[in-house]
Amino acid sequence: MSLPTVVVHDKTFELFISEDRIQTKVQELGAQLSKDYQDQKPLFIGVLNGSFMFAGDLMKSINIPVEITFMKISSYSGMKSKGKAHELIGLKESIEGRDVVVVEDIVDTGITMEAIVKQLHNSGAKSVEVASLLLKPECLQRDVKVKYVGFEIPEKFVVGYGLDYDGLGRNLKDIYQLKHE
Ligand code: IMP
User: Fold this and answer.
1) How far is CA 96 from CA 91, 122, 125, 129, 162, in A?
2) CA separation for the pair 55, 127 (Å, rounded)
3) CA within 20 to 30 Å of 32's CA: 43, 89, 131, 146, which one?
4) Residue 133: which H helix or E strand, with range?
């Protein structure tokens, strides 16, 4: 039986992680984070644009007092990493002395996340952990610790649930992977 597919721009993607599986995993991560941070009033920082859906659902599954904010960093265009990370944009909150959880859609090479974590430590964060819905372990080029991982996935381009291919596909409820015809 063939999997459902979607066409984004010029490429065909097939269903990879269903909405149900994503939601179950997000609940698990939320429960774990609620337990680990129960007395700390952590500051969650969502990395825009990709994390908006994951961050929204994750926040709904957290049952302790938390703050949530967003920032932007751009390091990707099309389907290839430009291999450089830019500065953090739009972060107004004071990071000094805070327990920070960076919320990301995917860690691929780890270049972006390494830069983010470094800058948050330099800004005086008490602790910095990373919650990423997806991780491509085979692609990691940096020694970044991703403490909270939803799914470890192979080295294949994915779209949906916040992740885009050249601007499209973020609104899909499920995650799709590039289909090789
Ligand atoms: P890294 O710096 O290589 O870890 O790249 C991280 C960023 O690249 C993520 O925040 C995504 O925006 C983007 N990215 C990496 N892999 C994919 C993918 O498979 N689909 C869509 N975006 C991706």
Assistant:
1) 13, 9, 5, 15, 29
2) 19
3) 89
4) strand 127-135
Reading the block at residue 125, the tokens are 């964060």
Catalytically annotated residue among 108, 143, 164, 166: 108
| Model confidence pLDDT, tens digit, residues 12-70 | 999 999 999 999 999 999 999 999 999 999 999 999 999 999 999 999 999 999 999 99
Domain boundary assignment for the chain: 25-74+82-153
Fold category of 25-74+82-153 in CATH:
Rossmann fold (3.40.50)
Report pLDDT digits (tens) over 125-172: 999 999 999 999 999 999 999 999 999 999 999 999 999 999 999 999
Residues written for the chain: 181
Helices (H), 51-97: 52-60
- Is residue 108 among the annotated active site residues? yes
Edge-first strand listing for the sheet containing 158-159: 5-8, 11-17, 175-178, 158-159
Torsion of CA 34, 37, 42, 46, to 10 degrees: -50
- Grouping H, G, I as helix, E, B as strand and the rest as coil, residue 103 is strand
Q: How far is the CA of 106 from the centre of ligand 1 (A)?
A: 6
